[in-house]
Amino acid sequence: MTNIKQLSLNEMNLTANHIATIPKLLETSATRKVMVLNLKHNQLGIDGAMAIAQGLIENTSLRLLDLSQNRLGSKGVMLLCEALKDNQTLSSLFLDTNGIASEGAYALSDLLLDKSSQLLELHLAWNLVCGTGLNSLFTALALTNRKLKFLDVSYNFVDITVIHSLRCMIERNPALKYLAISDLYKFNERAVDTICKSLQVNQGLKMMDVKSVTEDFFLKVYSTANVGRRESHIEFRRDEKYLKRRQPIAAIAPEDYPAA
User: Fold this and answer.
1) Contact 260/168 with Cβ under 8 angstroms?
2) Per-chain mean pLDDT for the chain
3) What's the predicted TM-score (pTM) here?
4) What share of the chain is helix, strand, coil (3-state, %, to 5)?
5) CA-closest candidate to residue 133, choices 61, 65, 77, 67
6) What is the dihedral of CA 238, 242, 248, 252, to 10 degrees?
7) Which uninterrupted H or E stretch holds 105?
8) Which residues of the chain have pLDDT under 70?
């Protein structure tokens, strides 16, 4: 196969029997420079992750890799992150619906902290990342990463323990333009107020997708987050229908919230 720049093998029911050719597909040569590889919704698993990782080590052409819905798990993501060390070409990584827990998020956080990383988009929706894993991602983006522009962590396990790192990321990172996150509506009023205050001082976000929310939460964030913003306003998105009102949750008492 020559002169291939985009390759889509999504929903092909690929399994371990088909993955032996993946490293060959990712070889960069004068006649083959694959820039977009879509392997969404197959059955690659950790063996597939290992084969892809092998191909990524020497690859210098791939810009977008979609591995959503492939049962990679945290171990598969760890293999990919190890292969992507020093990679200076991949800019978009889709890992939605892969059973990734916090261990996988730690590996991705280390990748975001790597100065050679060129990631601009990271999609992690519908996984199993809990507070500690989300904290590691948000902290990486609060500390040094100023390249990532799109982050989707919706439909993981967001709870009150992420509020400090989430606020720090929002307040300190001017590069992030799009943030998708769910379950914030479950927080109590004080926690929501602190998020709104952080959004008011943010200097980069253009769009925030809060997914499934109650009407009162969305109206509060929509009406207060842009008050006094020095830069352009943040556009807020949500799912078409509002959720019914639910009792706010908090894992720690409001007076124990750490300051950003």
Assistant:
1) yes
2) 89
3) 0.90
4) 35, 10, 50
5) 77
6) -20
7) helix 102-113
8) 1-3, 16, 28-32, 231, 245-260
- Pairwise CA distance, residues 96 & 240, whole Å: 21
| 191/173 Cα distance (integer angstroms) | 20
What residues does CATH 3.80.10.10 cover in the chain? 84-260
d(CA 151, CA 181): 9
Residue 238, both tokens? 């949500």
How many other CB atoms are found less than 10 A from the CB of residue 220?
18
**Residue 219 neighbours by CB under 8 Å, 6+ apart:** none
User: Backbone phi, then psi, for 137, in 5-degree steps?
Assistant: -65, -50
The predicted structure's pLDDT at residue 207: 97
The per-residue DSSP string of 42-67 comes to S--HHHHHHHHHHHHSS-----EEE-
Q: Which two tokens stand for residue 209?
A: 């997708």
Counting Cβ atoms within 10 Å, is residue 29 exposed (0-12), middle (13-18) or buried (19+)? Answer: exposed
In angstroms, the CA 9 to CA 43 distance is 12
* Residue 52 Cα to chain centre, angstroms: 20
| Residue reference for tokens 């060129």 | 118
Q: What is the DSSP string of 151-169?
A: EE-TTS---GGGHHHHHHH
Q: How far apart (Å, rounded) are the C-alpha atoms in residues 252 and 249?
A: 9
* Record: fold of 84-260: 3.80.10
pLDDT at 7 (0 to 100): 84
Identity of residue 210:
V
